[in-house]
Amino acid sequence: MKGEATRAVMVFIFAAAVLIPVGCKNKEDKKPPTGMEHTEMMLKQHQAMQGVQTNWIEAKAALSAGKLAEAENSAAAIERASFGLEEFMVHKNPDRKDDFLALAARFHKLLGDFKTELQKGDKAKAVELVTEIDKACNACHAMFRQ
Description:
By secondary structure, this protein is an all-alpha fold.
C-alpha cells in the first residue's frame, strides 16, 4: 500500500511538472522558456528517471524491512527503467558527456553489485552499496540536472 501511495504521488508530481508550463510570463504565454522545450526524448528521460526514483525508494524500504527479494525486484525494475541511460541528452553541462557516461557506467555497476548482494542474502553489504549508489546518483544530478 505504501509503495502504491508513493508511486501515485510521484506520478502526480511528474504529470504536474510536464503539464504545467515552467517560466510562463502570463496566462497567454503557454510556452516554456527558450531551451527548455520538452522533446520526446526528454520526456522519455524524465519518465525513465521517475521510474528509477520510485523503484529506488521501494528498494531501500524493502531492504530496511529485510525483504531482500522485494529489494531485488525493485533493483531489476531500476535496470529496466534506466535502460538506454547512456543515450540521454544532458540538460546541464552538455559538453561533459564523457563524464555523464562514466557516472552512468558507475551507477549500473553499483546497481548490479547491489542485486548480487541481495541474491546472496548479504543485507549488510547491500546496505553499504545503498550509500554508494546514493552518492553516484547525487554526483550525477549535481553535474547534469537542472
